[in-house]
Design goal:
The complex is a heterodimer of chains A (about 150) and B (about 350). Chain A has about 150 residues and is mainly alpha-helical. Chain A has helices spanning about 10-15, 60-70, 80-95, 95-110, 115-145. Chain A has two domains: about 1-40, no CATH class; about 75-145, AhpD-like. Chain B has one domain (about 1-10, about 25-325): Aldolase class I (TIM Barrel), CATH 3.20.20.70. Chain B has an eight-stranded mixed sheet with strand order 6-5-4-3-2-1-7-8. The chains are: A mainly alpha (about 150), B alpha/beta (about 350).
Chain lengths: ~150, ~350
């Protein structure tokens, strides 16, 4: 099928004809067969389906989960500080799911918009710096190649 | 105003919203953990809501309180509350509103409760302490060793004012300094606790961590001290429900509450040891049910004039979808987390 459809433009009848939805298109998302339903790459509902990743490799998922949970426990760093780091990393990775989740987590842990904005600047500065420092390599290569 | 008043009723019966059926009923979730039907275990907190009059109009207020509200407890009902209190061993009287101090019977309720040897808590919005008509209020509270539970959603003006109104933060700081000068937050007999409500569609974080943060920041910035911070979840009713619906956050917020259901928090919900009296003498399981007009039920007397400790102490609790707000994560109550 054409996977370029925007979800809102696809009429229910057509979907049923393709066997994509099992019943009528209601508000209940569980009726939709997601195997055939990829109209765009990022969907905010997917965040709540993260747990589906445990279905075919539960042991690995459990290990990831345990490690993940342990990582964000209060330690030498507070939970709030860790959430700000995570928010910065989320921006460096440009992961919309992570930005969504960690913006909320930062607010819940009591951070304010000034602090969150500074965390994003830290991430952006490191990304910018990382690009710029590679300029040294460019300069070395230039020196090597040039007369 | 009319629309605001309609909301609780609509919410009380949970009339269909587009995908409301997605959320399992609260009772079914209780049943899964052997907690259905939820029952009271006694009356330890006798909570009196004296009415909806308030000098503020906060955006999240579950009472829908404001300066234009006329619902207020009369002397007759206040006296009936004291007569009922006398019939119980409830050690704590929790007076709330609106701004409860603006009710002409507030001081009577404080004095009469103290005369019965009960500990009294005043849920204060802080700014009321600065009103000209209330110039002796702070001293009144201190003289009687009334515990002050004060609302302060954040230690910066921007977020506090966004929720509670322009200029509220500065006045709140002034009021907290006044309470500190009288010994609140310093003298163990003068307890000053803060209430933290999230300033948006998110849940409160760890209460102890937030308390450490607030203590550090309020001391560093304003030299203010307090005892405990209570982190309270905003329940999806009244004005906060309006906000959730208007901003498209309702579904996701409910999803978070439902997914974060914690049976330990459900076992410790405040309605099990609290009785809530409305401004007109109606009895409720909690202040939230009060705003939804859901009186106590299942054979328990629903008005203060029919008060009977025996019929109320072990009453079955009236529940709804909003109850997920008290059982999410570490739980939420008028005294902060429960689990």
């Amino acid at each position: 099928m054409d996977r370029g459809y925007h979800r809102d433009r696809v009429v229910p009848d057509a979907l049923e004809a393709f066997g994509i939805i099992r019943a009528s298109l209601a508000d209940d998302d569980t009726r939709i067969d997601w195997r055939c339903w990829v109209s765009h790459y990022y969907d905010d509902h997917d965040l709540s389906r993260f747990g589906d990743m445990g279905r075919n490799a539960p042991d690995l998922w459990d290990k990831f989960n345990d490690w993940y949970q342990a990582t964000f426990q209060e330690g030498s760093l507070t939970g709030r500080e860790k959430a700000l780091i995570a928010l910065g990393v989320a921006h460096a990775l440009q992961c919309p799911y992570c930005i969504d989740a960690w913006s909320q987590e930062c607010l819940e842990k009591g951070s304010n918009l000034d602090q969150m904005t500074e965390a994003v600047h830290v991430a952006a500065a490191i990304r910018g710096g990382a690009a710029l420092v590679h300029g040294v390599q460019m300069r070395k290569r230039n020196a090597q190649l040039s007369m | 105003m009319e629309a605001q008043l309609e909301l609780p009723t609509r919410n009380a019966h949970f009339s269909p919203r587009p995908s409301e059926n997605r959320f399992p009923s609260f009772n079914s979730r209780l049943a899964r953990h052997g907690l259905h039907p939820l029952r009271a275990t006694g009356i330890e907190v006798f909570q009196i809501n004296v009415g909806k009059l308030c000098n503020q109009t906060c955006r999240h207020c579950h009472v829908d309180a404001g300066p234009d509200r006329t619902e207020r407890m009369t002397r007759d009902t206040a006296e009936a509350c004291i007569r009922a209190l006398e019939l119980t061993d409830a050690p704590t009287v929790d007076i709330t509103g609106g701004a409860p101090e603006l009710n002409e019977n507030f001081r009577y309720l404080v004095d009469a409760s103290k005369a019965l040897g009960r500990h009294v808590m005043d849920r204060s919005n802080l700014t009321v302490l600065l009103l000209r008509s209330q110039s002796d209020l702070a001293e009144f509270l201190a003289d009687r060793e009334v515990e002050v539970i004060a609302s302060l959603p954040y230690f910066l003006a921007e977020r506090t004012d966004a929720q509670r109104g322009e200029g509220v933060f500065d006045k709140s700081i002034q009021a907290l300094k006044l309470l500190n000068r009288l010994g609140y937050g310093r003298d163990p007999a003068l307890r000053l606790n803060l209430v933290y409500n999230p300033t948006g569609a998110f849940l409160p974080g760890d209460q102890d961590a937030l308390e450490r943060e607030f203590k550090r920041e309020l001391d560093r910035r304003y030299q203010i001290r307090f005892d405990r911070l209570f982190a309270i979840t905003n329940l999806p009713i009244s004005r906060f429900l309006d906000f959730l619906l208007e901003t498209g956050n309702y579904e996701r917020y409910m999803e978070r509450l439902v997914n974060a259901f914690n049976p330990a928090a459900a076992r410790a919900v405040m309605c099990r040891n609290t009785l809530s009296v409305g401004w007109d003498g109606q009895l409720y399981d909690c202040d939230f049910n009060q705003m939804l007009d859901e009186t106590v039920s299942f054979g328990a007397p629903a008005h203060i004039r029919d008060f009977s400790p025996e019929l109320l102490e072990n009453r079955r609790i009236v529940t709804g979808l909003h109850c997920y707000g008290c059982t999410a994560g570490a739980g939420s109550s008028c005294g902060g987390t429960t689990a």
